[in-house]
Design brief:
With about 280 residues, the protein is α/β, with parallel strands linked by helices. It has one domain. It has twelve helices and nine strands. Strands 1-9-8-2-5-3-4 form a seven-stranded mixed β-sheet, with helices on both faces. Strands 6-7 form a two-stranded antiparallel sheet. Helix 1 crosses helix 2, helix 1 packs across helix 3 and helix 2 packs across helix 3.
Length: about 280
Amino acid sequence: MPHGAALSFGRFAGRLARLILWKKTDRCEARCVKALGVGITEAREIIKKSFVNMGMSLVEFVRSPLMKPNIKDFVEFDDASKKIFNDALSRGRGVIFMTSHMDNWELAAMRFTSEGLPLHVVYTPQSSKDGDNFINKIRTESEGMILIPAEGPGMRDIFRTLRAGGILVIMQDLDARSDGIIVNFLGLPASTHDGAVKLYQKFKCPIIPGRYVRDKKNPAHHTIILKEILSDRPGFGDDLKTSLEICNSVIEEWIKETPEQWFWIMDRWTYTLGKEI
């Protein structure tokens, strides 16, 4: 079907999922109230739009093979952002691209690879083997990702990627559970992955935070936004927890700007707050 019609179907699917998954919806709204300090009415509207965004993102993901030839028409990657990325790569130490579950990061990945920037993505396998195979097939064949499992032998590939001057992608907004360090995220204690900072301490590889934004007036259009090399901030890497606080603060800023485009359905605070949120 035409892309616009597909997105309309995605919006409908997102609204329907919100109603069907009403228990998860209630928890999302509770998270939003506590994390952003907003009232329940505003939180409900944010979560409603978040489900709509997820519905559209799912449709876009499935349509990735069709979108690939014209990905530049869907995702903007301006010269200023490219310069930041190329400046970091030119240092020859590899690059850690720190990102989060906002807008549609899958399309952004495809846009990067269209520029000849191969992404080595650290990922957590899905519980369903068939689902995992389906997702990874699209990621590798359509989006051009090189996948590195977060567990097992993946660490060797992570080291190899950075030593070769490659690009390593880390999703920094996942619950690290017992493997993480407790650092506030949106004002609430959250188990935070420390891998990006530890890798920087070991390899001195630049860390670039990157976000993506879906255009509110034209939801088929997305923009990649890169503003800085985070690890160039004075003192970054000197202290592990302080550096993780800096990483979290960047993602917090993104979420506060476009809260409806973050995946509130993720169990970000489960390890620290359990079913409370």
